[in-house]
Amino acid sequence: MITEGLKAHRFNAELSLAATNLGTNRYTTMESMRAKCNELYPGSFPYSFDFLYWEEVGVIDTELVRNLAICGGVILVVIFALVPAPRIAIWVVLCVALSIVDTLGFMYFWDVTISGVSTIYLLICVGLAVDYAAHIAQMFKESLGSPRERAIAAIERIGPCTFNAVTSTLLAVVVVGFSDSYVFRIFFKVLFLVVTIAGAHGLWLLPAILSVLGGSKEDRAVASYSESESLGDTGRLGTSAVQEAEIRFGSSDGSPNDRGHEASNAEDADSFISDVVSLSSREMGPGSPAAAKASS
């Protein structure tokens, strides 16, 4: 059966090295070829098996930024949920963000390009970077004292465990650093950078920030006891004055007593006021318990 017209045609072409030596050049060349072929012969398109890898170059930057933003949003929610202290949690988020930015910078100097492989490892390491800072922050939240004392207590209690986690992870990945496989070598480089940088931020930078801006925390039981003691002294002072008033003018229920009948003129009232002031001065004197607590 004979059909009319040309249904399909294929011809081969070679690209110069200048058009394919860099990743950005390859993607630009591929897009230019597609546009030109479709312009000359509508419906036609160029194809090469290498285009599967060249396509990645044009979308990997957008994919990386978008996925990092999604991971960052999830990490933000998790940190504020597990460390319910905004004054502390915000610094954990900052340490995680700085760890990822520093890792990206060192990847450039270690000849690690942004590819599908390195992007996947970098996204995995976002969660790993949270581990070191979150433990220090949680222990700082539970510690008592001034900001400096709380930071020292957090390092003393959880610092050795965090350092062991950093060391054990490095020992686990250093083996694949000698591999000839590109995937394994990139895995080693990215994980080595993240563990080292995130560990330094968690063990060094975060405690330094919290020791200045973390705020102090006192034992609520001790503070409540001190407050009750202070109120107790004031109450005893007021009770003494009321008792003296009852003695001079009668009890609070209106029943007169012997000394209450003596206050029959203004001179006795003035004398009573002077006695109350004198009584207050004696109870708040240098040797009294209330004065001792006030001075302390």
Give a quick summary of the entry.
The chain has nine helices and no strands.
Protein model, in words:
It comes from Symbiodinium microadriaticum. With 296 residues, this protein is mainly α. The chain has 3 domains: 14-48, no CATH class; 59-213, Multidrug efflux transporter AcrB transmembrane fold; 223-295, no CATH class. The protein has 9 helices and no strands. It has helices spanning 23-40, 51-82, 86-109, 116-142, 147-173, 182-213, 220-249, 266-283, 289-295. Helix 7 (220-249) runs antiparallel to helix 8 (266-283).
CATH topology of the largest domain: Multidrug efflux transporter AcrB transmembrane fold
CATH architecture of the largest domain: Up-down Bundle
Helix content: over 70%
* DSSP, total strands: 0
Keywords: Membrane, Transmembrane, Transmembrane helix
Organism: Symbiodinium microadriaticum
Region (Disordered): 248-271
GO cellular component, one term: membrane
Salient structural properties:
mainly alpha; 9 helices; Multidrug efflux transporter AcrB transmembrane fold; single chain; 73% helix; 296 residues
In terms of topology, how is this protein built?
Blueprint: H1 23-40, H2 51-82, H3 86-109, H4 116-142, H5 147-173, H6 182-213, H7 220-249, H8 266-283, H9 289-295
Helix pairs in contact: 1-2, 2-3, 2-4, 3-4, 3-6, 4-5, 4-6, 5-6, 7-8
